[in-house]
Automatic annotation (TrEMBL):
One GO MF term: cytochrome-c peroxidase activity
Lineage: Bacteria, Pseudomonadati, Bacteroidota, Sphingobacteriia, Sphingobacteriales
Main location: other
EC number in record: 1.11.1.5
Keyword Signal: yes
Entries under Pfam families matching the protein: CCP_MauG (PF03150)
Domain Di-haem cytochrome c peroxidase: 63-210
Residues in coiled coil: none
PANTHER family: BLL6722 PROTEIN, CYTOCHROME C PEROXIDASE-RELATED
Listed name of the protein: Cytochrome c peroxidase
Keyword annotations: Oxidoreductase, Peroxidase, Signal
Localisation per UniProt entry: Cell envelope
Length: 365
């Protein structure tokens, strides 16, 4: 599920799904399948979290999530059968990959966007990819699946491969009471990703009242500093507003590429104010998901914080939230405050999430 330079997937979702349905019919056999009702699955939502986004057209089931988990880790989904979603989304790195720009796709070419974390996606309601080019997780899946430099997969070939696997024929029957298809694969992948909930950090123990001593005095000061200086965008218990901001890392948005990768949200909205605006990532598990930004340009938290303190570039589209009352770009932070902010960010690390067996490769021994 690399979220890099994809097509404007949300725009073409209905077309892709229709084509997928048509192509999958060609490989279906005539033997009827018995009826089976999947088991509904309720997300375990912490009391201090908001309600997740409802997905009535793809409700979670035990069987759907199980299918999605197997597909997520299976290189069968790529053209050369060597690349899986997990190739660029490693659980121990909060489902990022630890490199700025990966070359792990089927073409071996370096991609143009950093593989993001996959955390608390059940609450994402403003689009996926760094520019919001997919409207939901279901449509998002077709971007990396079909992109020539990522998984390079034909949807017809994908359906045929799944149909040829007795294992997947059985799992699709259990999950959807239907034959395998690319559309069903996207739905199952989305279901699995919506279960990737991170809510067991030391901060959560403090926030829920389970352990009021879970945070040190320095971490508590850091928590208040994050709310004060970063909380407008990294807001709430999710530590993201799921919106798009130009955070001043560039002031030149010239982009002659066919896909306008470096123009940010503008390539989707065509609104000039969205030039250079990218999606706000969550701060949860941020100490495990370096490097940072949509292109992975900052290798460390120190570099990232230094950018916000003194490196913000002024442009007509730089978010005004990053300016002080005198209209100077930058967020005032002393060295001590930066240290305390980093200490709190460490308290957002969720070791249970990073090691949760139900999120891991089901085929790994």
């Amino acid at each position: 599920m690399m979220i890099n330079k994809g097509l404007k997937v949300g725009v073409f979702t209905s077309i892709v799904l229709s084509l997928c349905t048509i192509s999958c019919r060609k490989v279906q056999v005539d033997t009827p399948l018995p009826d089976q009702t999947p088991t509904p699955l309720m997300l375990k939502v912490p009391a201090h979290f908001p309600a997740p986004t409802k997905m009535l057209d793809n409700p979670l089931t035990v069987e759907g999530v199980n299918l999605g988990r197997h597909l997520f880790y299976d290189p069968l989904l790529s053209a050369n059968m060597q690349v899986s979603c997990a190739s660029c989304h490693h659980q121990e790195r909060a489902f990022a990959d630890g490199v700025a720009l990966t070359a792990a796709g089927v073409s071996g070419k370096t991609l143009e966007r950093h593989s993001p974390t996959l955390i608390n996606l059940a609450w994402a309601d403003q689009g996926f990819f760094w520019d919001g080019g997919a409207t939901n997780l279901e449509s998002q899946a077709f971007g990396p699946l079909t992109h020539a430099d990522e998984m390079g997969m034909s949807l017809v070939t994908l359906a045929n491969r799944l149909m040829a696997s007795e294992f997947y024929v059985n799992l699709f029957q259990q999950a959807f009471a239907e034959k395998p298809s690319a559309q069903g694969a996207a739905k199952a992948l989305a279901q699995f990703q919506r279960t990737l909930i991170s809510s067991n950090s030391r901060y959560d123990s403090y926030r829920s009242g389970q352990d009021l001593k879970a945070l040190s005095e320095g971490e508590l000061r850091g928590m208040h500093l994050v709310k004060q200086k970063c909380g407008t965008c990294h807001s709430g218990e999710l530590f993201t507003d799921n919106a798009f901001h130009n955070n001043g890392i560039d002031d030149d948005f010239t982009d002659d590429s066919n896909e306008w990768i470096h123009r940010g949200r503008y390539r989707i909205s065509f609104n000039p104010i969205d030039l250079g605006a990218f999606k706000t990532p969550t701060l949860r598990n941020v100490t495990r998901s370096a490097p940072y930004m949509h292109d992975g340009r900052f290798k460390s938290l120190d570099q990232m914080l230094q950018h916000y303190r003194s490196g913000i570039k002024h442009s007509p589209v730089t978010d005004r939230l990053l300016y002080d009352q005198n209209e100077n770009p930058g967020i005032a932070m002393s060295d001590k405050e930066m240290t305390e902010i980093k200490s709190f960010l460490e308290a957002l690390t969720d070791d249970i999430f990073l090691n949760e067996i139900t999120f891991s490769n089901p085929n790994k021994k």
